[in-house]
Amino acid sequence: MKQYLSSRFAALAPAFKTTILSILSWAAISALGALQTYSDNLRIGVVSDYFLLLRTWFIEYAMPLIVLSAGLSIALERWPSLIARRRRVVLLFIGLVVIFQPAEWLYIAWLRGYLSIGSIGDVGRLLMKMLLVGWFSTTGTFAAILAIQYGRQARARELAWQRSQNDMLNLRLALEEQRMLALRAQLEPHFLFNALNAISALVRDGDKPLALGGIGRLSDLLRYALSASVRNTVTVAAELQFVRDYIDLQRLRYGARLHITVEGEDALLHEVECPPLLLQPLIENALRHDLDCHDGSSDILVRFVHQGDSMSISVSNPVGRHCAPNPGAGLGLANTRDRLRLMHPAASLHAGMQGDRFVADVRLPLTEE
Question: Cα separations (Å) of 251 from 109, 254, 358?
Answer without folding.
Answer: 107, 5, 21
